[in-house]
Amino acid sequence: MSSGNVPRPSSIGSAEGMRAPKAVRWIVRTLEDAGYETWAVGGAVRDALAGDPSGDWDLTTRAEPGTVRKLFKRSVPIGIDHGTVGVLARDGTLYEVTTFRRDVETTGRHAVVEFADSVEEDLARRDFTINAVAWHPIRGELRDPFGGVDDLQERRLRTVGSPDERFREDYLRVLRGLRFAGVFGLTVDPDSWRGLVRGVPFLDRLSAERVREELLKVLGGAGRPSRSLALYAASGALARLAPELNRLVGEDRRDGGDDDLWSHALRTVDLLPPHRPRLRLAALFTGVGWPEAQSRDRGRKSPGPRERAALRAAAVLERLRFSNDEIRHVVGLAGWSGFFPEGDPGDEEIRRWLAGAGREQLHGFFRLWWAEARANACRGAGPGPDTVLRRRWRIREVLSREPALKVGELALDGRDLIRMGYRPGPHFGRVLEYLLDRVLEAPDANDPETLARWASEYLEAAGVSPASGPGGSHER
Ligand code: ATP
Ligand code: MG
C-alpha cells in the first residue's frame, strides 16, 4: 500500500509541537479559571496527532451546559439534551463544548446519555481508541486510557472495549471504522474486524441519512477514498448497502486490461477532486450497467447496459435518500458517460448522444472521462487521454453549429400545431418527439415551414386531420 496523503509514521502520534488555535485555549482557560476541568477531544486531537491540525476542535468539560452558557456571552444551545453548547469565539468560529457524558442506554441507532464526573468516563463511550484521546490545549498533557496514540503509531484500528458490544450499540461505527482505517491507512485489529463484520448485517437498521452522510464523508475526503471503499467491499458492507455496486467486484472489463470493473472504478474515483463528491459517486456507477442481469426468460427484451446503469444507480441513490436533483445529476452522468459512440462517430451520432446526455452536464462528463483516461493509462487498456481530447474537440465542433437537442429547441411548438388547426392532446408530445428525431438527423431542417410540413405528414399518416370547423381535429 503506498502512503497517499497519510502522514509519515515519524510524525504520527506525537503530541510534541501540537498547538490548538488561540480561541480554543481561551475557552479552556475561561472554564478552568472558573473551576471546571476541560479537554480537547475527538477528531481534532486524532488528526493533529496524525500531523493534520486542521480539524474541528471539540471540547469536553466538567461544567454543565447552564454554566457554560453563563460563562460565555456569545453561546448557543446546540444540543442541550446531549450537553452541547456552541461557543462563538472572537475568530468567528463556533466551538462545541460538551459536558462529560456516559451512556446509560444504547439501541444500535442512538444513545441515552447522562452527565459524568471524569474525562475518562467520557472517553470510554467513544468508538475507537484513536478517537478516545484527550489532550489539554494549555498544559499539553495527554489522557489516553485506551492506548489510542500507540494504535495510531502502529497504524492499528481498535474499538474501545468489546468490539461486538461497541458495534451493537451503534452500527454506524462499522462504517466509521472502515472510513478511518482507509483515511489513516490503518489495519483493523483482528478482533475489531471480526466484530465489525458481524455488525454488517445490521447496517439496514441505520437511517438512510446517516449512511448517506457517512458515504459522502468517504467520497469528500482529501486522500484516496479507494482505500475505505475497498474495505467496504472486503467487509461485506458494500454488498449490504449497494449490491448493485458490489456486482462490479471481480467483473471483467469489456475493453481488456486485467483489473476488474470495481478496481477501475476505485482508481477513477481517486483521480477526481474531493470537492466534487457527487462526481466521484457517478464514477463509481459508470460501469454498473455491464454485469448482465440473470434473466430467467431469455429472449425477452430486457434493458441494455445503459438503461441498467441508470436503473441500478437510481436504485442505490433512492435507497440512500439522495435528493431528486442529485439523483438526476448522478444518474445522468453514470448512465451516459460510458456510452459515447465508439471509434470515429459521425455528427449525427454525437448529436444523439448529446440529446440523451444533456449539454448542461458536459463539464462533468469531461472531468469523468479525463479521470477514467488517466486510470486507463495506468493499466494500458481502454480509452486514453488522446481519445478524450478528440471527443471534446468533436463535441465542441458539433455544438458550434447550435443544433436543436431537445424538443424545446425546435422551431415549432404546440402553439404552432394549434395554429395549424390541431386540437391539443397527448399526440402533440409524440409529434414533437418525432420532429426532434428528424432534426437530430438533419439539423438544418429546423425551420418552421419544414417542421410544419413534417408534422402534417406525420399526423395525416396517423389519421389525424386539422379541424375544419367547430369540434376541432379528431383521431380516427
Ligand atoms: P469526522 O468529523 O471526520 O466525522 P470525528 O471523529 O471528528 O470524524 P465526529 O462525528 O465529529 O467524528 O465526532 C467527534 C468525536 O465524537 C469522535 O472522534 C468520537 O470520539 C466521538 N463519536 C462520534 N460519533 C461516534 C459514534 N457513533 N460512536 C462513538 N463515538 C462517536
Ligand atoms: Mg469531527
Walk me through this protein's architecture:
The chain is an alpha+beta fold and 476 residues long. The protein has three domains: 22-154, Beta Polymerase, domain 2, CATH 3.30.460; 217-295 and 303-399; 407-475, no CATH class. 48% of the residues lie in helices and 10% in strands. The chain is built from 22 helices and 13 strands. A five-stranded mixed β-sheet has the order 1-2-5-4-3. Strand 12 and strand 13 form a beta hairpin. Helix 7 (172-184) packs parallel to helix 9 (208-219), helix 7 packs across helix 10 (225-235) and helix 14 (277-285) packs across helix 18 (362-379). The chain is elongated, with a radius of gyration of 29 Å. The model is unreliable at 1-10 and 469-476 (pLDDT under 50). The structure holds adenosine-5'-triphosphate (ATP) and magnesium ion. Magnesium ion binds next to loops.
